[in-house]
Design a protein that fits this description.
- This is Hydrolase.
- The chain contains ten helices and 14 strands.
- With 271 residues, it is α/β, with parallel strands linked by helices.
- It has an eight-stranded mixed sheet with strand order 5-4-3-2-1-12-13-14.
- Strand 7, helix 5 and strand 8 form a beta-alpha-beta unit.
- Helix 2 packs parallel to helix 10.
- The longest helix is centred in the N-terminal third of the chain and has 12 residues.
- The radius of gyration is 18 Å and the shape is globular.
- It starts with a strand and ends in a 7-residue tail after the last helix.
Length: 271
């Protein structure tokens, strides 16, 4: 068994465009887990809307969430590690959003906060519902009981193209500012990434990089793709993501994860 730890991105990778986990993909993952391989979801999502997929597949272990900003044990909900952001350093980004009418939310490991949550548009509410999240009203910084690990900006692609272009001109040395999807920009701690979190987890489990496999589809996946011994990009990935991977599988709407796992991980005896 060459690959002892397999990291899977969720949206655009594990799930199809309807945000569904297909029965065929779930069954293949279960078979490989029965061989003794560990799986970890490595996602921009929070624990609350990623752990259900682990349980749906009958998996134990960990989820790497918020693009590497927090790793959580799915049974105990123990935070294995998290990268905290200082609220004061976020001020220029949040002021920009307020001045330009750009939607943002503030995330702790387990909660999501929005300014004016009670007056959210139906479009925003539908987005959060799609990702199984219920936003809370953003309190004063002093009243937050948990560390901030991520700020997510969301909107139409052309709007976020402008935001990302503007912020790219700033000194972002305190943060990791990255596109986590066509409709999202995430701000996390400068040392936070999927790759860094996956490395920490692999080291904790005593697994070398050559025995790690990673599958992803977007720019926020590049750090884990370049870390893993075997890295696979989805066919629906941008060219830069495909270039960072060692192989390319079918798209998320064609069960690309299932096909990759069957090719590289499923022992002949259980096919």
């Amino acid at each position: 068994m060459r690959y002892k730890l397999i990291a899977l991105d969720v949206d655009g990778t594990l799930l199809n465009d309807d945000h569904e986990l297909t029965p065929g993909t779930a069954e293949t993952i279960k078979k490989i887990a029965e061989q003794g391989t560990e799986f970890v979801l490595c996602t921009g999502r929070a624990p609350g809307n990623s752990i259900p997929f682990m349980k749906q597949m009958g998996l134990s272990g960990y989820v790497i969430t918020h693009n590497g900003a927090a790793t959580v044990n799915i049974e105990t909900l123990e935070i294995v590690h998290e990268f905290e952001i200082s609220p004061l350093t976020l001020a220029p980004y949040l002021d920009y959003c307020r001045d330009n009418g750009v939607h943002f939310d503030v995330n702790t490991t387990f909660a999501l906060y929005v300014q004016g949550a009670a007056g959210l548009s139906q479009e925003a509410l539908d987005m959060y519902k799609q990702f199984m999240m219920v936003p809370k009203e953003l309190p004063r910084w002093a009243d937050l009981s948990e560390p901030i690990v991520k700020v997510t900006v969301s909107g139409h692609k052309d709007e976020l193209d402008k935001v990302y272009a503007d912020w790219s001109k700033w000194d972002n040395s305190e943060f990791n500012v990255l596109r986590s999807g066509d409709f999202f920009i995430d701000i996390t701690h400068k040392d936070s990434s999927k790759g860094a979190a996956l490395r920490k987890l692999a080291e904790k489990r005593g697994i070398s990089a050559e025995n790690v496999m990673a599958v992803g589809n977007y720019y926020n996946d590049i750090s884990m793709l370049t870390y893993a011994g075997l890295s696979i990009a989805m066919d629906n990935s941008p060219l830069e993501v495909k270039a960072a991977a060692k192989a390319v599988t079918a798209s998320n709407n064609e069960e690309g994860v299932k096909l990759a796992l069957e090719k590289y991980c499923l022992e002949e005896s259980v096919r």
